[in-house]
Amino acid sequence: MDAALAAALAGPRGANPLVGAVILSPEGEQLATGYHRGAGTAHAEADAISEAHKKGVDTVGTTMVVTLEPCNHVGRTGPCAQAIIAAGIAKVIYAVDDPHDPAAGGARTLRSAGVEVLSGLALDQAFDLNRDWFDAVAAKRPFVTLHIAQTLDSRIAAADGTSQWISSPESLADNHGLRGLIDAILVGTGTVLIDNPRLTARDADGELSHRQPLRAVMGLRDVPEDASVRGTDGRFVHLPTRDPSEALRMLFDQGVRHVMVEGGSSILSTFLQAHLVDELIVYLAPTVLGSGTPALNDLGITTLADAQRWSWDDAGGGAVRMLGEDLRLHLRSPRGSAGNAGNVVQNKNLVSRSEAAEHLTGGH
Ligand SMILES: NC(=O)c1ccc[n+]([C@@H]2O[C@H](COP(=O)([O-])OP(=O)(O)OC[C@H]3O[C@@H](n4cnc5c(N)ncnc54)[C@H](OP(=O)(O)O)[C@@H]3O)[C@@H](O)[C@H]2O)c1
């Protein structure tokens, strides 16, 4: 399970959880490893099975150890329970139950097909791996990534409003790569009126990427008819609200499961203040302005004890990376923050410790 948890960390956070899987021989030898590379790609179980088959390994009679209950539904990819049965795997040990109703039931399907299933191994670590994702699922809201491209002194634009580009070309390319993975990108009306951004995902040559996010603008003012963000592909939505929870509800209702909030300061601040951010990606340029638009406005924090203390996130390429001249910082939401704690506890109860112990010791 340690190896499966480590493999899971290679994937990106977002609409889907991080999941890792390891296939073991009956003697306990590690035969193949797989992980999930994000929405629309193979699940960890299918990835591990395909790696095993590529290596010429016979999976009949093997054991699979996986960090999340195998799914039972046909989403963007086929159901993992069926793939496991088809591969002849004899035993599955997973850590934590899948909280999705449509996906739940993978364990039952496996048992009905004669596969031995145990659950609850390394439950706490597997839950912690995806605690923000579990929280978003329970709250029926999209997973929220906050993106900030800033100078060393935390400015996102100069005093005259210029902000293109604070980041290195490598950071911009990284950001466009992320835009191609998410379901929606969100900015405030202020950014649209000042910068007139396109908010599309583009490759190094400026060509539109195959997958484009929904472009969402939040705020009460109208979005001008000739604003670039409207585009011509119909993938634009105006969210006439200043309430971040309401904006997320509107996006969720449109099928959005992962949104990247790109700015400006007012929108970044309102999401942070509401504890509605799961993941923070900061591109830090070795540049000093001394004046201009600060990345964040007042968050209502007046004493150090109330500071939001974020954790470094090793998932999806690591916590700290150089991108050209910039530093890319990757962080997870503060543990037990006011907006998250309740749901985390509620979710954890989905798999009770006694149930887990019973599964682990009691076999079927
Ligand atoms: N470097 C970067 O990563 C980056 C990214 C984006 C933007 N920027 C820069 O950010 C600057 C714009 O920042 P900004 O703060 O003026 O614009 P903003 O955050 O994009 O939009 C602010 C507007 O959003 C609306 N709004 C919606 N919900 C709100 C809430 N809860 N609280 C306050 N306002 C809310 C308000 O307009 P309504 O009256 O319409 O409701 C407000 O005036 C620009 O200079 C741009 O270049 C930098």
TrEMBL record:
Family matches, as Pfam families: dCMP_cyt_deam_1, RibD_C
EC number(s) reported in the record: 3.5.4.26, 1.1.1.193
GO molecular function: 5-amino-6-(5-phosphoribosylamino)uracil reductase activity; diaminohydroxyphosphoribosylaminopyrimidine deaminase activity
Annotated keywords: Hydrolase, Metal-binding, Multifunctional enzyme, NADP, Oxidoreductase, Riboflavin biosynthesis, Zinc
Reactions performed catalytically: 2,5-diamino-6-hydroxy-4-(5-phosphoribosylamino)-pyrimidine + H2O + H(+) = 5-amino-6-(5-phospho-D-ribosylamino)uracil + NH4(+); 5-amino-6-(5-phospho-D-ribitylamino)uracil + NADP(+) = 5-amino-6-(5-phospho-D-ribosylamino)uracil + NADPH + H(+)
Function description: Converts 2,5-diamino-6-(ribosylamino)-4(3h)-pyrimidinone 5'-phosphate into 5-amino-6-(ribosylamino)-2,4(1h,3h)-pyrimidinedione 5'-phosphate.
Protein name (database record): Riboflavin biosynthesis protein RibD
Organism: Paenarthrobacter nicotinovorans (Arthrobacter nicotinovorans)
